[in-house]
Amino acid sequence: MRSKTLCALFFLVVALPASAFAEDKDSCTTLMDAKVPGVEITKAAHIDAGSTEPIPWNQSRSAPLPAYCRIEGFMNRRTGVGGEEFGITFALAMPAKWNGDFLMQGGGGSNGVVIAPLGLNAAGETAGLIRGFAVASSDTGHQSHRPGFDFGFMRDEQAYLDFAYLANAEVATLAKQLIAQHYGKPAAFSYFSGCSTGGREGMILSQRYPTVFNGIISGDPAMRTGLSNLAIGRWIPIAFNQIAPKDANWKPIIEQSITDSDRKLIKDALMKKCDAQDGLADGLLSDPLACDFDPETLACKGEKNDSCLAPGKAAAIKRALGGPKTSSGTQVYAGFLYDTGITNGPPFRGLLSPGPGIFGPATTDMTMNVDKEALAAIQPLVDSMSTNLTTFSAHGGKLIFYHGDSDPWFSPLDTFGYYKDMAAANGGLDAVSQWSQFYFVPGMSHCGGGQALDQFDLLGSIVNWVEKGTAPMSVIATGKAFPGRSRPLCAYPKHAHYKGQGNTEDAANFECR
């Protein structure tokens, strides 16, 4: 049935009347009558200009939307394991004033919900839909019973495969055909942009469906969730459990392993060591790879006092942030950067603020078998680690990575490690920089937030790169954490550096070195 669905989509374009024009409201509602095997159109409605959509995680970014055609539907409905209904729910927004391009947005967490198709990721202050993109989103094949992190669907093989890699390519194919039907012509270029799970999805699409999208933006990708969970859910807590005070049942009280005074001491020392390396002490570490901070330099030489760390605590912090290693010393997941956000408190706990997390209570274990647990944590269907992107690049594809330096869930060094491996496998960094870039985002937590400039328009940058051949030299970043401040984000191997004169809050007085 699924192969018939895709084959029938071409028939949809040629068989239905090609009377769809952007300004014609009827061309929207007639899509309710589209007959495609395995596809149910549940809504086809014209939405007048001025409407708004609630925006998950950041309501303040809501803005009046242009007039658009809203399509909602369901693909591949079936009964799966346990009698549960499965299938891919999707939404497509097609603006009255179309720019001629298609943008698909990635999901988040375990997916299972259809986020409003607005195109917000890495788009700065102006959503993709407002810019004129036709925007699609989906739940990748299941409905969440606990929004955010409900992975119960994985007991059903097809639902697992849809989430892992199948659903986005299917929805993109259908969306392109509906776009062609509505506007009377196909989209000129297709883009994908996502963060976290959406970042992983972008990588999967470049690796397994290399001709579907012309440009892909992958942010803070959940590219090896089994191993990243091993790091943040096992390795790091266990390192801190070993130094934590114990309760009456001799269970570690992990929240007390690192005190407020410890955090202040570490952050002050970190900033003194690395903040001015970019030419200015401004609370942002713009050159994270040059920061060689070592917490063991803070270890007390004599009695413990407020100006030093207990030697065991300093060693535990270094071990924790160094990432999990096997008994033979093999690194199984990257370590983490020493960045300004490591001491943050909830909701996005920094790595030095241990305690209950998004997946429940912290472990009380004191030891772990990294060799055994790392092997079990590898997830070949979901992990996005293939580095052969010769078809994607030969097709003219452009791929931009970005990662928050203070991301407490997925190490920016893991994403950076993939980028270096991918470059090596595709002709070296100079060759790969013709079609792919990597951006570190100082201070940014997971996909946003933190003491960071977390608003930047990589969407506009990748469009210019794909459609005009103009590779971005940098992208300007702003954010609520530093009102009135702007900085350039620079593609690796460069970083923002103050020129030495001029307004220190203005990106114009910084250069990429």
Task: Please provide a written account of the structure.
It is a single chain. Mean pLDDT is 93; it is low at 4-22. It contains 13 helices and 14 strands. With 513 residues, it is of the alpha/beta class. Among the domains are: 1-40 and 68-91 and 98-166, no CATH class; 227-377, no CATH class. The longest helix is centred in the first third of the chain and has 27 residues, at 157-183. Helix 6 (225-241) runs antiparallel to helix 8 and helix 6 (225-241) runs antiparallel to helix 9 (370-377). Helix content is 29%, strand content 16%.
Summarize the structure.
This protein is α/β, with parallel strands linked by helices and 513 residues long. The chain is 29% helix and 16% strand. The strands form three sheets. Strands 1-2-3-5-4-6-7-8-9 form a nine-stranded mixed beta sheet, with helices on both faces.
Order of helices and strands, N to C? HHEEEEHEHEHEHHHHHEHHEEHEEEE
Number of helices: 13
Q: Walk across the major sheet and give the strand order.
A: 1-2-3-5-4-6-7-8-9
Averaged pLDDT: 93
Would you count the extended β strands for me? 14
SS-derived structural category: alpha/beta
First-last Cα distance: 54 Å
| Percent in strands | 15-25%
Point out poorly predicted stretches. Answer: 4-22
Radius of gyration: 24 Å
